[in-house]
Write a structure and sequence with these properties.
It is a single chain. This protein is α/β, with parallel strands linked by helices. It contains 14 helices and eight strands. The strands form two sheets. A six-stranded mixed beta sheet has the order 1-4-3-5-2-6. A hairpin with a 4-residue loop joins strand 3 and strand 4. Helix 4 packs across helix 7.
Length: 323
């Protein structure tokens, strides 16, 4: 069944603010909203306010509404005036993302079907789908990331695309060939990706025909080692994290040490530690503002008091999710 789209397009006199550049899209970027507004309210607010922030579609449990023409860019990925995300991708916001629940679940299911429909219309595979985080490191789509479901969402899009008779997706290829991929994000280096993914730099260059390791592009999809190896490695990383007991919070001087490092690694394994562009993903063993904010986001998403203080309840929830 075709997903209908209702249009409520921004007026042309606001193009300079909201969508100033002509665009020939190459990607679709998925976002979670930061509130519980409907698609109609999201689009109405976006096209009528004085902020430059913009996106093409909002999807809720009942409908899809378009706010910008697809031949114009949107300011939605934070990767700069000439960033690939901002200039070359279609922005799709999933509504009711703050609180979750039945409405959010229905909105996400509709968004999955709609994104598959967009891919089919363009003859694209699921390899053209990105999350906001891929472009500038922002923790978005926050609900999908916090629940560790990004790979599941992409797989669901691939299944919908296959049901529509669309082009074979990269996810489908990965299942059959056993290969895995990695999408280059802002701040990534080839050597850093090789270290993070446990592959040699030489192999990574060879597999992707990269002559100059200093020249990789945001949004570039790299071939990695076998998916099965990568998956088991990820499981070992999660299960090997031993969390400390006690209470950790920002102090002066800052609390530091191996215990803090383990907390940071646990948050990173669950996609809450955000500094992917920094050395060692920003894991430094210091319980500062960055760690406290990651703890606070984790607590907020899992029904705990969001105070940024690591204690017994936060430890128990982390351990349950790391199993």
């Amino acid at each position: 069944m075709t997903i209908a789209v209702r249009k409520n397009l921004v007026s042309e006199n606001k193009y300079k603010l909201k969508c100033p550049n002509a665009m020939s899209a190459e990607y679709i970027t998925i976002h979670n909203t930061a509130n519980d507004a409907s698609a109609a309210n999201e689009i109405s607010y976006m096209i009528n306010n004085t902020s430059s922030t913009s996106f093409h579609f909002a999807v809720d449990d009942k409908e899809v509404i378009q706010g910008l023409p697809l031949n114009r860019n949107a300011w939605h990925t934070g990767d700069g005036t000439n960033g690939t995300g901002n200039r070359k991708s279609i922005g799709v916001e999933i509504c009711y993302s703050e609180s979750g629940g039945a409405k959010y679940k229905a909105a996400e299911e509709r968004a999955i079907k709609f994104v598959a429909q967009l891919l089919k219309e363009r003859g694209w595979g699921v390899d053209r789908v990105r999350k906001h985080q891929d472009w500038n490191g922002k923790y978005c789509p926050h609900r999908i990331l916090s629940e560790g479901r990004w790979d599941d969402v992409k797989a669901a899009i691939a299944d919908e695309l296959e049901a529509l008779g669309g082009k074979k997706s990269s996810s489908s290829s990965e299942k059959s060939s056993g290969t895995a991929t990695y999408t280059v994000k802002k701040g990534d280096t080839l050597s850093g990706i090789a270290k993070e993914k446990g592959v040699s730099l030489a192999n990574l260059q060879s597999w992707n025909n990269i002559k100059n390791p200093n020249k990789i592009s945001i949004g570039q999809v790299l071939k990695l080692k076998k998916a099965s190896s990568s998956s088991s490695s990820s499981s070992r990383k999660k299960s090997s994290i031993t969390l400390p007991s006690g209470v950790f919070k920002i102090t002066s001087p800052l609390t530091k040490g191996a215990s803090v490092t383990q907390i940071q690694k646990a948050l990173a394994a669950l996609y809450f530690y955000p500094d992917k562009g920094a050395k060692n993903n920003g894991i430094d063993g210091y319980y500062g503002a960055k760690t406290a904010n990651a703890v606070k986001r984790f607590q907020s998403m899992h029904g705990l008091t969001a105070d940024g203080i690591y204690g017994p309840k936060t430890k128990a929830k982390l351990e349950a999710l790391l199993k």
